[in-house]
Amino acid sequence: MERHLQKRVFAFGAAIAALALSSAIPQSANAQDAPRKVVLRFASDFSPPPHPAGMAMAYFGERLPQVIPGSEARLYYAGALYTIPEAFEAMRQGNLEMAWMQMGKAAPVDPWMMTVVGPGNMTTVGAVDQLEKTKTFQMLVERLAKNQAIKVFGAGQMSFGMGVGGKKRYLTPADYGGRKVRSMGPVENASLSAWKANPVVMAFGEVPTALESGVIDGLMTSIGGWNAVREQAPFYTTGGAGVFTGDYYMVAASSRWWNRLTPATQKALEGLIAETLKVQKEFNWCVDRLTYEKYGTKDPSKPGVYWMTPQEASAMTNAVGNASTQYVKTKVPADARAWVDTFAKESRELSKQNPAGSSWIEKIDCSKYASKIQIK
User: Fold this and answer.
1) pTM of the model
2) How many CB atoms lie within 10 A of CB 146?
3) For residue range 217-256, what is the model confidence (pLDDT) as tens digits?
4) Please, is 157 exposed, middle or buried when counting C-beta atoms within 10 Å of its C-beta (0-12, 13-18, 19+)?
5) Closest to 182 measured CA to CA, from 240, 225, 246, 231
6) Strand pairing category for 304-307 and 198-201
7) Which of 233, 231, 235 is nearest to 215 (CA)?
8) 136 to each of 106, 127, 132, how far by Cα in Å?
């Protein structure tokens, strides 16, 4: 019995020694450098597919387990998990991993976010594509990292074809006089007022009934949004990126969560986020382009999507003047007001440097997305 017990003790000791030895042997470089599995919650304030940003977010969810095996992204659309201010607080505390949000809606948490909001700033696709390179955007990234413990990866546009729909064509400032037009927010109220319209702020779900009953005469929205109400508002006019409104979706993460990830995991996620942002820009452009191909018109007197000429778009932005920037200045701290002017200047310069038709986005072959983007 004693001899048998000694054998068991010896065997157990040998096993422990072998385990210690195996632990002491360095892992292979591949094992050390491999990203580790992540399970993350990804919240947004936009609609699910077929919304272009919703499609891109779904793309992220599909690609994540391919890039980092075993990983999972739990996607929450249209404020299903948090409003934007709530998402900021949750990320700051480390209770939410990632969010994709409209920057202007973060103003209740940090009013400085309004420095990049407003129409008539970036008026070309190529300019919008350069947003992250502006000093103003970089300033906001630094502020969020320092004050909110939020890491920003990049941004995309809401749509490259924002505009105004209605039962009549809204093409010149004179067309707006006395008309009740659904606005997207306070900044857009300032531009609509400059065109002598009566802005009405309402949720998009109320728009069809409001158009039918005459509560509003038209609405400010994206081409995709117009497509949902084109029977009530058969005319849609767009000046392209930023003419009617400018607000951007940024992808961000909780620094508390991000800093706990291994370098290899961070690198893999950064690569996937950059890939997703590129895809989102492609989806944005192609939703607008394919809708235009189906419902576009060169004759503004006929219903459908009319794409304004640069001269027509300039007439609209010139009529607004500085009304929008002056409004934003009343809503941001005094030391942020100079940044409102800085962004306007940067935007004008980028729009000149990147004229219409010069961006890689405008050269995308959208036929590759025709089966994914269903235009009703």
Assistant:
1) 0.83
2) 10
3) 999 988 878 888 999 999 999 987 878 888 788 999 999 9
4) buried
5) 225
6) unpaired
7) 233
8) 16, 14, 9
Name the residue with tokens 């072998």: 18
Task: Identify the DSSP state of 26.
Answer: P
Positive or negative torsion for Cα 151, 274, 347, 190: negative
Helix axes 323-331, 337-353, angle to 10 degrees: 140
Spatial distance between the Cα atoms of 133 and 140, rounded to a whole number of angstroms = 12
**Within a 13 Å sphere around the CA of 162, how many CA atoms are in the beta-carbon half?**
24
**Residue (of 205, 175, 206) closest to 192 by Cα position:** 175
Report whether 136 contacts 346 (CB < 8 A).
Answer: yes
Residues 215, 195: Cα–Cα separation, whole Å: 19
Query: Which residues touch 262 (CB under 8 Å, ≥6 apart)?
Result: 35, 36
For residues 348 and 314, the answer to whether their CB atoms sit within 8 Å is no
State whether the Cα torsion 314-320-325-326 is positive or negative.
positive
Q: Which two tokens stand for residue 292?
A: 């235009």
Q: Tokens 């989102």, residue?
A: 280
Q: DSSP secondary-structure letter at 271?
A: H
Separation CA 194–CA 249 (nearest Å):
26
CA 26, CA 85: separation in Å to the nearest integer? Answer: 46
DSSP 228-289: HSTTT--EEEE-STTTS---EEEEEEEHHHHTTS-HHHHHHHHHHHHHHHHHHHHHHHHHHH
Res. 25: pLDDT tops 60: no
Whether the predicted pLDDT of 17 surpasses 90 = no
Phi and psi at 201, nearest 5°, equal -90, 125
The pLDDT tens digits of the residues spanning 141-155 come to 999 999 999 999 999
Contacts (Cβ under 8 Å, ≥6 apart) of 367: none
Q: Is the peptide bond before 50 cis (omega within 30 degrees of 0)?
A: yes
The 10 Å Cβ neighbour count of residue 370 is 13
Q: Give CA 312 to chain center in angstroms.
A: 27
Q: In the prediction, which pLDDT does 31 show?
A: 53
